[in-house]
Each structure stands twice: as C-alpha cells, then as structure tokens.
Amino acid sequence: MKIGFIGTGVMGSSMVRNLLRNGYQVTVYNRTKAKAKALIKDGAILAESIEELAKDQDFIITIVGYPQDVKECYDKIIPHAKQGTVLIDMTTSSPSLAQSIYEDAEKHGLFSLDAPVSGGDSGAKAATLTIMVGGDKEVYNKAHAVFEAMGTTINYIGKAGSGQHTKMANQIAIAANIAGALEAMTYAIRQGLDINAVLRAISKGSAASFQLDMASQRILANDFNPGFFIKHFIKDMKIAQEEASRKGLILPVLNQVLNEFTYLQEQGYGDLGTQAIYYYYNQKDR
Q1: Of 27, 81, 135, 191, whose CB has the highest number of CB atoms within 10 Å?
Q2: 167 flagged as catalytic
Q3: First vs last C-alpha separation in the chain
C-alpha cells in the first residue's frame, strides 16, 4: 500500500514513522526539505515536489500549517493524483475548505476525508492520536487501517467538514482547559503553596485533565518547547471563532483565551508551546 505524506514537522514526522512501522510504503515531501530528508533513514522515499508525490499513491495525507497551505497543496495534488486515490487532510483547518476539497476531488474521480487529530507530539510519537473524520462512510472504512497506524481513538463523525467542526469543538474545550489549569497553577504558586503537593491533590479529582497534567509537568521542568505551537493554536481558535460567528454564536471563554494567546504572540512567544500561556499570567506589564 502506497502513501504520500506532505508535512513532516513536529506531528508529521512521528506519524510517518508509525506508518512505516506498519508496513506502508511512504513517500514524503516538506517545503523545508531537511525535515523530509531526516525520514529517509527510517525507510521513507523523498519526493522533490508535491506533483511528483501525488502520482501513483493509494492514499495521500497532508498535515501542514494553515488553511492557505492546505489549499495550495490540494490545488497541486488533485490534478496529478490517479483516479481512486484517497486524500486525507489531517491539518486542523477550515470546515468550508474541507467541503470544497471534497467536491473538487469528487469531480476528478478522487475521494477526500477531513481527519484532524488531537493528542499533540506525544500522541503522534506513541500512535495514540484521536482522529476525527468527515467524509463518506465507505471511504472512511477503506482508510480505517491507515488511521489505526497513527491513532487509537478513531471517530467517524459525518459528511465532509464534520471532522473539522469536531476539531473546533475540541479546540474550544482545550482553550478553557489550559487557561484554567495555568490560572490555577499560578494562583497556587503565588499563595506560596508547595505546587507539587497541590497538583497531587487536584489532579485526581474533579479538576483532573490532560491539559493540567501536561502543562504542569512541562512548566515544572521549565520546558516551553512546542508540543503544539501557540501560533497554530491561535489559527485554530480564529477558525472556531469564524465558524461560530456564522451561526450567530458568542463564545466568550474562547474569545478571552484567544486574546491572551494573541498577546503572547505579539510578545514574540508564537513558536513556543501552548503551556507558555503561563507567561501571560506572570507578566507584570500587561
């Protein structure tokens, strides 16, 4: 089974390695060629262009940065992919763009799924990602084994765009969780409490969350490296904000957290991990 994979960054590289471990032939492409070349020693094949990669694949997977990057990829993929190829965008992107790609793929005899993921860099490495899929159910069934190589919680949601809408709901929940977790941690530290004792006390009760565990561990280790970039989370929250606006929804918690992360990006923190919202609560000059 042949898979073309575009986007070999923090998440994509680990996802490619898991596909290789499961016996797939994987051809890779990345705009920064060095990131793709690093996978050759693991058994991947390097493509020099998206057009070259698109030819003669059974599946083509993309996980890139922004909706515009997604659009540019599929503008090149769709004219060059063989009929019957399954296109899977795993970027967190616009639901309306997912629907557009689905329609364009269908016109060219191709199949399309939107399948954004959750779980961060650790989930990508461990092949324990949560995958949310929109598109035709029979195409989802065909791709299920591919998803199983990368994730453990695989959910078919509904028609094209449904995966992306589900990821927006996921990101809205994360926004509230990580902000609450880091506010709580800041409060405990400022009160002079033993933060490890506080975390032991609250992390197994009703305040328990993945975000509390992940963020607190990284902050205590002074690790602000990105499992998920602030700049990409801002992109996700803006998409959710736009989609909510189309339905006349007001999301005050999302809007507040977006403002906090936007402030951090303006201060030069956009390439740090989302746990760096801790800096927001500890800056004196806001």
Answers
A1: 135
A2: yes
A3: 53
Can you list the alpha helix ranges (DSSP code H) found in 208-283? Answer: 210-220, 230-246, 252-266, 277-281
CB 95 within 8 A of CB 89: no
69 contacts: CB under 8 Å, gap ≥ 6: 91
The string over 21-37, giving b where at least 16 C-beta atoms fall within 10 Å of a residue's C-beta and e elsewhere, is: eeebebbbbbbeeebbe
**Is residue 249 within 8 Å of residue 284, measured between CB atoms?**
no
- Residues 36 and 230: their CA atoms lie apart, in Å, by 23
CA–CA separation, 231 and 265 (whole Å): 7
Place of tokens 């951090």: 264
Q: Which residues of the chain have pLDDT under 70?
A: 284-286
Catalytic residue (one of 142, 167, 238, 247): 167
Is the whole model's pTM more than 0.90, yes or no? yes
Residues 113 and 126: their CA atoms lie apart, in Å, by 23
d(CA 206, CA 193) in angstroms, rounded, equals 20
160 phi/psi in degrees, rounded to 5: -50, 135
What pLDDT, on the 0 to 100 scale, is given for residue 227? 80
Q: Which two tokens stand for residue 219?
A: 């902050």
Beta strand pairing status for 111-114 and 45-46? unpaired
Q: How many beta carbons lie within 10 A of that of residue 75, not counting itself?
A: 12
What is the three-state SS of 79-126? HHCCCCCEEEECCCCCHHHHHHHHHHHHHCCCEEEECCEECHHHHHHH
One-letter identity of residue 286: R
